[in-house]
Amino acid sequence: MRLAFLGTPEAAVPSLEALVRADHDIRLVVTRADRRRGRGAALSVSPVKAAAQALGLTVAHSLSSLEGLDVERGVVVAFGALIPSSLLEQIPMLNVHFSLLPRWRGAAPVQRAILAGDSETGVSVISLEATLDTGPVHVQERILVGEKTARELTAELAALGASAIVRVLATRDLLEHARPQSGAATYADKLGKETYHLTASMAAALALRTVRLGGVFFNFEGRRIVVESARTSEVAVAEGEAEFGDGTVVLGVSDGSIALGEVRPAGSSTMSAAAWWRGRRRGSGEHRWS
To answer: What interhelical angle do 13-21 and 47-54 show, nearest 10?
Structure first.
């Protein structure tokens, strides 16, 4: 099938590669424009652009490049922008969305599923509409969330979505008979900086789910500490206090405590929480964190 592909991050690459392996004719790949990396003049390409170039595919950075393109359908995976209705009238598009729609429509479905404590999530292949993630469903595939990090879960969903989109395009019944979404809609708003800030007012379960997002931090003795891993703790520690004992750093939260596994202090590399605690500059006798 003659296709256009729209996507940007690493999570979209498996779908692009799977479509090529399935012998679809990818006439054009549309992705975000190159960006400057750091303070230098070097430009950074999106993961989808890098993959497309490796596959010998034509790449563009504007939706206007699709106007008049001789394709039968478009495939959209984490493109990062709404497609206007005028373009959808020209090119019907399928979207691989990383949630069980209508749950978690929007920009951060994987992270929101983790934060909410969902037991399962999945991928939905839908016909794209101009409104946000509202289109009818061609197929859904489910997986358990478990204790997976956002990175791990996204990688699984990316692989699952790749196989799902290939199956939909290869199966006439799935392609031609989508069903309306059913159930209550929830929205996966973008994550702000505050989402990644671990605070003592959190319940332990929420704190641990937050850590699984990656890049989560707390402040201690005037320094930002990124938490790479953490686990449940039975040690009684007051809310907002940090204690070290038996080789373990424990943070007190609203309903108990959590034990830190690995951390990354600002300006340092990842290390065990115990190594960080022993090597830090000693502040006051109070071990408060925020």
So the answer is: 20
Cβ proximity of 253 and 262 under 8 Å: no
Pairing between β-strand 35-36 and β-strand 43-44 as defined by DSSP bridges: antiparallel
Question: Is residue 277 within 8 Å of residue 251, measured between CB atoms?
Answer: no
- Distances in Å between the Cα of 234 and the Cα atoms of 30, 139, 194 are 51, 43, 27
96: tokens are 């691989």
Q: What is the pLDDT of residue 5?
A: 98
Say which residue the tokens 């190159």 belong to: 34
Give per-residue pLDDT as tens, 86-105: 999 999 999 999 999 999 99
DSSP 78: S
**Chain centroid to CA 29: how far?**
21
Residues 161 and 258 in one domain: no
| pLDDT exceeds 70 at position 282 | no
The strand order across the sheet containing 59-60 reads: 59-60, 25-30, 2-7, 73-77, 93-97, 120-127, 137-144
* 290 within a domain of the structure (yes/no): no
Residue range 71-80: mean pLDDT, rounded: 97
Give the model's pLDDT for residue 135: 97
- Distance CA(256)–CA(235), nearest Å, equals 8
Domain count, the chain: 2
CATH at residue 45: 3.40.50.170
Instruction: State how far the Cα of 205 lies from the Cα of 254, in Å rounded to an integer.
Output: 10
Residue 176 burial by CB count (10 A; 0-12/13-18/19+): exposed, middle or buried?
A: exposed
Q: Are residues 179 and 60 part of one domain?
A: yes
Could you say which of 132, 155, 188 is where a domain stops?
188
Express each pLDDT in 201-253 by its tens digit: 999 999 999 999 999 999 998 899 999 999 999 999 999 999 998 999 999 99
240-255 confidence digits (pLDDT tens): 999 998 999 999 999 9
